[in-house]
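Researcher: Sequence recovery benchmark, item below. Answer with residues only.
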């Protein structure tokens, strides 16, 4: 999940008394932003997700896309009830008061924090693949290359988090989409022309791996935190449902293609990131890996910024004399992501946890519950109510089983 223009979420704890303005983003621009929000690092792990559930789980991938598209429409319907609603936490407050705002904000911030952690783990994994012999001896102990690269990457990213004006970093949507296209093309080239082939048959169905697979699939479509902001930014907000349709169709084509390519290439040997499967001696592999490495570096600060701003608004009133405290808060946040990434350097398990616990809640459960609360007519027995009820049952099942499995896997592999 990459959240384009995520710094706009910094306004989520503020009221919005000003009337809507006529200026705003166009349909095409919003499509780019939304597509960038939906197409991110999940692209790397979609073959692994397919290997966990088998070929038939592709139906679940597209089913999850349909559900998340529908819940995105529910968020728009919630916004239509009050012109002052601008952000996702606003919806939570409109539905359940301050507790609703606080709950949704906590889930959003935790999701962003763990996404930043995933960026660091991804960098560590892929840099270690490029330079496998790297290690450092500290106080008589050998620190592995993966941990070294996590810390070095964070050190490089740290100065970017000190910038409060992230407008320059916000114009990356087109670049992010282009990077995804290059990545898929590079993987296809490796399979077709680098003696890898598409000969793996894979498993038809693996029911034990379905909770993990669905957790990954939900992670891929967890752009709901930014959907209200994207809608608010549009010149013509009535076109937002069409924006969602375009974004979900194109992202599903991208995810489906990558899942099939990767699984045909590596089958049951698919790793948590398809880049870790690629033969390192080919230029096309290096293009794919380096393309993967660039995006987290450019987006890490955008992901961290809303959390930092919320903490700053809680503890201080920013002015010229408080910049030192601001820098300290942002530095501590970066250090926190490094600690978690070093202690829990398991990309697939962390992603599964994000998908099952946070993404399912924010992208499936919360939109349905808020809509039912805010729209009395929706609680009347009918097709809409039954469909929403089925979504809630499905989401709750995935959240419980997926979270349990991911937490179990993390606990089993962590050695402190």
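Model:
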């Amino acid at each position: 999940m990459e959240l384009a223009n995520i710094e706009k979420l910094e306004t989520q704890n503020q009221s919005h008394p000003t009337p809507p303005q006529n200026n705003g983003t166009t349909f095409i621009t919003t499509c780019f932003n939304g597509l960038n929000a939906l197409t991110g690092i999940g692209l790397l792990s979609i073959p692994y997700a397919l290997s966990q559930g088998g070929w038939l789980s592709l139906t679940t991938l597209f089913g999850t896309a349909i559900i998340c598209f529908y819940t995105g429409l529910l968020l728009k319907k919630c916004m239509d009830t009050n012109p002052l609603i601008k952000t996702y936490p606003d919806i939570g407050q409109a539905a359940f008061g301050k507790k609703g705002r606080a709950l949704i904000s906590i889930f959003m911030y935790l999701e962003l924090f763990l996404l930043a952690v995933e960026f660091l783990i991804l960098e560590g994994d892929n840099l270690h693949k490029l330079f496998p012999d790297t290690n450092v001896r500290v106080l008589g102990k050998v620190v592995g290359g993966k941990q070294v690269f996590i810390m070095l990457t964070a050190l490089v990213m740290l100065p970017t988090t000190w910038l409060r004006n992230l407008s320059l970093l916000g114009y990356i949507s087109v670049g992010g989409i282009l990077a995804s296209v290059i990545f898929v093309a590079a993987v296809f080239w490796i399979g077709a022309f680098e003696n890898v082939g598409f000969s793996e048959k894979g498993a038809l169905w693996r029911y034990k791996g379905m909770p993990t697979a669905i957790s990954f699939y939900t992670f891929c479509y967890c752009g709901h935190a930014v959907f209200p902001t994207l809608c608010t930014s549009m010149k013509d907000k009535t076109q937002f449902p069409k924006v969602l349709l375009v974004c979900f169709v194109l992202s599903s084509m991208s995810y489906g293609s990558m899942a099939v390519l990767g699984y045909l290439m590596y089958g049951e040997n698919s790793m948590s990131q398809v880049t870790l499967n690629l033969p390192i001696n080919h230029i096309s592999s290096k293009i794919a890996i380096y393309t993967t490495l660039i995006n987290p570096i450019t987006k890490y600060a955008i992901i961290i910024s809303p959390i930092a701003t919320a903490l700053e608004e809680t503890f201080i009133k920013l002015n010229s004399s408080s910049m030192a405290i601001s820098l300290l808060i942002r530095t501590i946040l970066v250090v926190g992501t490094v600690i978690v990434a070093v202690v829990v350097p398991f990309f697939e398990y962390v992603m599964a946890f994000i998908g099952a616990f946070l993404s399912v809640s924010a992208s499936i459960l919360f939109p349905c519950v808020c809509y039912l609360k805010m729209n009395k007519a929706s609680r009347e027995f009918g097709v809409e109510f039954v469909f929403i009820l089925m979504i809630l049952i499905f989401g709750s099942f995935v959240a419980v089983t997926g979270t349990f499995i991911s937490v179990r896997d993390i606990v089993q592999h962590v050695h402190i």
